[in-house]
Each structure stands twice: as structure tokens, then as C-alpha cells.
Design a protein that fits this description.
The structure holds 2 protein chains of 2 kinds. By secondary structure, chain A is α/β, with parallel strands linked by helices. Chain A has 9 helices and 22 strands. The radius of gyration of chain B is 18 Å and the shape is globular. Classes of the chains: A alpha/beta, B alpha/beta. At the A-B interface, helix 7 and helix 8 of A face helix 2, strand 7 and helix 3 of B.
């Protein structure tokens, strides 16, 4: 208990030292104050908090992560990650600091507003101010609270009513070696107004050296009839901790597709909250996690059907090598008024390492009586018969394992609707297969 | 030198002995049929020859073109030229038939010190072979066996055989579950691949298939032993009288 009490005071001290010489507008100061108060009230979650029971935060708790005080220097291997998705609208943050040189907001189409929060100052539009911290559970999610207290900049996106943004928006978060023992708090807000359409990709990339704490919070608001595709690609360096939250507020007849690929960081967790608050809202959550060595990777999802005629689809797949450990924990909650909804949830895990460990916990909580809900989970090895079949065709064991693993995982890449991103994630997958290297011509 | 020579082969699975001393010799260019009731060990023989690790060989020897087959891994047996057509071909979602075959063919060619085929050569080859066994070209792009009908799966096995060109093809109940039209198509595919170099071991429960794939020799397998060997007329005899005739011989 003492240790935890001490942890609290360290972050509170940081906060106080930080806010003293910060000249924040009043609304922002108030939001941050709310964040630190919420964090102080909760503290870091212990193993007794149900949602955090499996997540061993010891390495994070042992360290005191001071907010990164400036952008660090980058090697070429980090830099080249910036352009991998081709022609896009792009904001780049280095150790949490906006980098105008790497960003590309030159040719924004009508209807799209895209800028770092730091450019707004006092003049933040009301719709953004309302969305920023407006829907997330700052009171109950300690890392969202911490982010709210400490975020220094953010990616702000607004899509006007009826506008279709053709090119994807990409927000790149880079962690340099200088982020060692530093905390970074990225904040992203996307408001898609009525009947608008936009694709947002967040890339989390980092060097292997730093032991950094990255606590991103992404807030998506899809107003009536809006279409939002959101992709998260988390390939941070082998030493870092990534504890993030994604929140999607989905209004009447709006569609939100969320796709998460997680293969980086030593300790990684993404909590996804999807609220279907208007009738006919449609949410898809897809995820693929690829772990090896002693990586820990966790996806928690909360899908809240709060209105009738909603649809939610979730498929998460994991490929575990070495002694890695993963968690999928998903709750689909159907509120009393939410009749005629259709909710599905699947989690499949492929264990390639004898000492790998996959936890799978799909959950349903239904308070309505006219609904369609299903869920399922599997944890298994590669099919011996399939391996033998491939062997009898002359394909060696290594390659057969790679091929079957690829086949298992690649299904999760199919929903990706952008070819550049599909090719990129496919390459990440190919690099992480067991056994012999495949040529990349599969399928 | 025989293409395949099996001497006193014993094998078991999960402690139960299934093969109890098989002796069999196949020369190049010959087609042999193995017939027998359910549970006689037909499929076990096929899988042991292909190297299925779930079976344990407890005694005996198998020589394939003078190589000790039992010492080789399943993939090396395939690379040496042994092909097993599965009774229940395995579905591999997410891997296209084309990619699968290219990986297979190039693994075999590499093992033999031959040049791997480039994409164009390979595509030309599989198109030609698909045609020769009457396989719909659209199946080439589909994931291996996924969503294929029973007939399509069996035809796909024969197609793989046509592409991989083994020296010995073992067909495990390739006729099971096929209607007469599908059976004819499969048999035609097999017949088009018969030549003086290649041997076939056709395993079947029914004589029907042997009307279309006419064997040089027929062996009757009962309780893990070959109890009778004869010409193609033996199959007809079996069809009329059933296996009861041989039960005594096996006992």
C-alpha cells in the first residue's frame, strides 16, 4: 500500500510542477485538473481490480516515468516508417511532440480539419472541446486519467457534415531512444459529423532501446450516419510499455470499423470502448496480435449496445510464440432498451510456443430479451493433419508451419480496406512467422 | 530394382498393431490395387508409406528405388517421388491452391538439384495440368480444398499428382464418396498419368473403381495382412463373393 501511495504522489508532484509553469487556457487547465484528480482517486490498478487482474504492471510501477521534455533524435529505421503508407494526410509526433517537418497537411480537402492541438490555443472549436474528454471514462480508467492530466499535444480531426475524405488520415507516434524512462501521452480526437466518411490510421512505432511508457487515448465520435474506419498499428520497440485506450461513440446509423494490429512493445494493452448509442449503429472490432519472446499483449473490449437494431462484430486472433502471454477479454453488454441487436464475438489463439499462454475471456451481459448474441473462443496448436498434408507434398516442417500460421493470421488482414495498409501489415506478419521465411506470394 | 518393395512391415498406432507383416513389390509402370474391408489396414499402409508420424513402424523394411524409405521424413519421401492422395484431403484456408503447389513443386525441384520454376513457367504448367485432369481453373485461385465439393477435392488431389509428377502415387480411397461421373473423371485423370516409369498403388473398398483404373495386380488385405494376390479378375471375384471367402485364410 505504501508503495502505491508513493507512486501517486510522484505523479501528482510531476503534475503540480508541470502545471505551475504552464500557460494553458482555462478549459484545458480544468480538463487536466480533472484528469489528475481522477488518477489520484484511482491510483494504478492493482491485481484485485477485475479488468486488470491479468495485467502485470510491476515493471511500470517500479519506474517513475517523467513526461518527455522534448522530441529525441531518430535513426533512419524509425524515419522511414513515416512514409510507408504513401500519399496521406499526416500528423507526426515525436516522443509526444508535434513535428511539422514530417507532417503533411498541405492539401487538406474541403470538410477536413486536421491540426495538432497546440495550434489552437484558446480557440478550440466547441465541437472538439465537447469531444475531448467528453465520452471517455476518465473516472474509471486510470491510464486515461493519467493521459488527461499530462497530454501536452494531440491530433485534432474534424470531418464536416456530408464530407467524404478520400485520402486516409495518418497519425504517426514515434518513440525515440531518448524516451527512455519517459512517459508520452498521445491524444487523438476525431469527430465525424453526420453522414461524413473518413479513415484514420494511428501508427505507434518506436526504437527498441527505450523503456518508455506510452499512454495514448483516442476518441472517436461518429455522428448520425457517419462512416469511420480506424486502424491502429502498434509496433513499438521491444523495451517499451504501451497502455492505450480507444473510445468510439457511435450515433444513430453510424458505422465504425476498428482494426488493431499489435506486435510491438514488451508490455502492451489496448482497451477498446465502443458505445452504440443510436439505433442502427454498426461497430466492427477486429484485432490481430503477434507475440514472441516474453512479450505481454492484452486487448480488453467493451461493446455497449445502448440502443435497438445495433450490430457489432468482433474477431480477435492471436499468434503466440516463445514464452509470450496474451489476453483477450471482451464484454458485450446489451442494455434493456437495446432490442433487435445482433452481436457476435470471437477470439481464436494459435499457440506456437510450448510455454506461451493465451487467456481468452469473451463475455456477454444481456438485459434485453429479443436479441441475437453469440460468442466463442479457441486456443489451439497447428493442426497435425494439415502439417502432414503439406509434408506429403514436399513442403518441409518449417515452411509448413509458416504457411499454416500465415493462413490463420492473414484472415484478420482481409477486412483492411486500404491496399497500402494491407500490404504493410501483411509484411509485418510475414516477418513474424515461425520457421522458414515465406516468399510473400501466398494467396 | 523394384520401384517399391515392402518386407514384413508391422505398424501400430496408440499401442494397437494394425499392420502385421505386409509384403509387397511394385515394379515401375505397374498399377497395384489393394482391396479390403473397413479396418483391414488399407489407409494405415498408405499413411505409413507416406510417413505419418502418428504411426509407429515396429518391424520390417520399405525400399523405394533402393532407398530406405522409413528413414526419410515425410517431406523427403515426397521429394524422392512418393505421393499420397488423401482419402479426406485437408482444407487449408488462406493459402491458395496455386501458392501451395508452387511451394511444393519448388521444394521438390530444389531437393533434386533442379532449377526452381519462375512464376510464368509455373503458371503455364499448372494451367496445362489443370486442363489435363479437367479441373476448373477457378479452383486454382481458391484456398486449398476450402469449400470444395467431395468430387472437387478428389480431383484436386489428382491435379496435384499431375503437377508434382511422382514416381509412385498412392491413392487412398480416392473413389469414396464419388458419384459415377466424378469417379470417371478422376479415373481418366489417373489413367492419363500412367506411364512405364510411374507406379500406382490404388487403395479401394469397391471393385467399381477398378473398372476404370485397370490394375496389373490386386491384393486382398485382411486384418493387417495380404491374404491373396491375383490379377484384375480377383477384384471381380471379391465383388461377387465378398471378403468372407478370405476370412479363413486370414484367421
Amino acid at each position: 500500500m505504501e508503495a502505491i501511495a508513493e507512486q501517486k504522489s510522484v505523479y501528482l508532484q510531476d503534475y503540480e510542477a508541470h502545471s505551475a509553469h504552464q500557460d494553458a487556457p482555462e478549459w484545458l487547465a480544468r480538463l487536466r485538473q480533472h484528469g489528475i484528480e481522477c488518477f489520484e482517486a484511482q491510483g494504478f490498478p492493482g491485481r484485485k481490480v477485475e479488468a486488470w487482474r491479468k495485467t502485470d504492471l510491476t515493471p511500470v510501477l517500479r519506474e517513475h516515468f517523467v513526461p518527455a521534455s522534448g522530441p529525441g533524435q531518430m535513426g533512419p529505421e524509425l524515419l522511414e516508417k513515416v512514409g510507408v503508407l504513401g500519399q496521406v494526410h499526416r500528423l507526426v509526433f515525436v516522443d509526444g511532440w508535434f513535428d511539422p517537418g514530417l507532417s503533411d497537411v498541405d492539401k487538406l480537402p474541403n470538410g477536413l480539419t486536421l491540426a495538432p492541438l497546440s495550434e489552437y490555443g484558446e480557440r478550440l472549436p466547441a465541437v472538439i472541446q465537447e469531444a475531448l474528454g467528453g465520452f471517455v471514462d476518465t473516472e474509471t480508467h486510470p491510464f486515461t486519467a493519467l493521459n488527461t492530466a499530462f497530454f501536452r499535444d494531440g491530433a485534432i480531426m474534424h470531418v464536416a457534415r456530408g464530407a467524404t475524405v478520400e485520402q486516409p488520415v495518418v497519425v504517426v507516434h514515434l518513440l525515440t531512444p531518448e524516451a527512455d524512462r519517459r512517459a508520452v501521452y498521445p491524444r487523438t480526437v476525431l469527430v465525424a459529423e453526420e453522414a461524413s466518411q473518413v479513415t484514420l490510421i494511428e501508427q505507434f512505432v518506436g526504437a527498441d532501446e527505450p523503456f518508455a511508457l506510452n499512454c495514448p487515448v483516442t476518441e472517436i465520435v461518429a455522428r448520425q450516419g457517419a462512416n469511420v474506419d480506424y486502424y491502429k498499428v502498434q509496433e513499438e520497440g521491444a523495451g517499451s510499455a504501451h497502455l492505450g485506450a480507444v473510445h468510439a461513440e457511435t450515433f444513430r446509423d453510424a458505422t465504425v470499423h476498428i482494426h488493431s494490429l499489435a506486435c510491438g512493445a514488451k508490455l502492451a494493452r489496448t482497451d477498446i470502448y465502443a458505445n452504440l448509442i443510436g439505433p442502427g449503429a454498426d461497430v466492427t472490432l477486429n484485432g490481430l496480435y503477434l507475440t514472441t519472446g516474453r512479450q505481454y499483449c492484452d486487448h480488453h473490449t467493451w461493446v455497449n449496445h445502448k440502443a435497438e437494431h445495433g450490430t457489432s462484430r468482433q474477431v480477435f486472433k492471436g499468434v503466440l510464440q516463445g514464452r509470450s502471454e496474451t489476453v483477450f477479454d471482451g464484454l458485450v453488454k446489451v442494455f434493456e432498451r437495446a432490442q433487435k441487436i445482433d452481436a457476435q464475438q470471437q477470439n481464436r489463439n494459435l499457440l506456437l510456443g510450448k510455454l506461451a499462454l493465451a487467456h481468452s475471456n469473451p463475455r456477454l451481459e444481456i438485459h434485453a430479451d429479443d436479441v441475437k448474441c453469440s460468442h466463442g473462443s479457441t486456443v489451439g496448436k497447428l493442426d497435425d493433419e494439415a502439417l502432414f498434408y503439406l509434408n506429403t507434398r514436399g513442403i518441409g516442417l518449417d515452411e509448413a508451419q509458416g504457411l499454416l500460421t500465415f493462413a490463420f493470421a492473414a484472415e484478420m488482414l482481409k477486412p483492411i480496406r486500404l491496399d497500402r495498409l494491407y500490404q504493410y501489415e501483411r509484411q509485418l506478419l510475414l516477418q513474424r512467422l515461425p520457421g522458414a521465411e515465406l516468399t510473400g506470394e501466398v494467396l | 530394382m523394384a520401384l517399391l518393395e515392402i518386407r514384413n512391415l508391422h505398424a501400430k498406432i496408440q499401442g494397437v498393431e494394425i499392420l502385421k507383416g505386409i509384403n509387397l513389390k511394385i515394379e515401375r509402370g505397374e498399377t497395384h490395387a489393394i482391396m479390403g474391408p473397413n479396418g483391414s489396414g488399407k489407409s494405415t499402409l498408405a499413411k505409413v508409406l507416406a510417413g505419418d508420424p502418428s504411426y509407429e513402424v515396429t518391424d520390417g523394411e520399405v525400399f523405394f528405388q533402393d532407398r530406405n524409405l522409413l528413414e526419410l521424413s515425410p517431406e523427403d519421401r515426397a521429394r524422392e517421388g512418393v505421393f499420397l492422395g488423401f482419402q479426406y484431403p485437408v482444407e487449408i484456408p488462406g493459402v491458395s491452391n496455386t501458392y501451395f503447389l508452387k511451394a511444393a513443386l519448388n521444394a521438390i525441384r530444389k531437393y533434386r538439384g533442379e532449377q526452381e520454376l519462375d512464376a510464368m513457367e509455373f503458371l503455364q504448367l499448372i494451367k496445362e495440368r489443370a486442363k489435363s485432369v479437367n479441373l476448373d481453373e477457378s479452383l486454382l485461385r481458391r484456398p486449398v480444398n476450402e469449400g470444395f465439393s467431395g468430387g472437387e477435392k478428389k480431383r484436386n488431389e489428382i491435379f496435384q499428382l499431375a503437377v508434382l509428377e511422382p514416381y509412385l502415387a498412392i491413392l487412398d480411397e480416392t473413389d469414396s464418396g464419388l458419384d459415377i461421373d466424378a469417379l470417371r473423371t478422376v479415373a481418366e485423370g489417373v489413367n492419363s498419368l500412367r506411364n512405364e516409369e510411374r507406379g500406382f498403388l490404388v487403395i479401394t473398398h469397391y471393385q467399381r473403381l477398378l473398372n476404370y483404373i485397370v490394375p496389373d495386380e490386386v491384393h486382398v488385405l485382411l486384418r493387417g495382412r495380404i491374404v491373396k494376390t491375383g490379377g484384375k479378375e480377383l477384384a471381380e471375384e471379391l465383388e461377387e463373393s465378398g471378403y468372407a471367402l478370405f476370412e479363413e485364410a486370414a484367421a
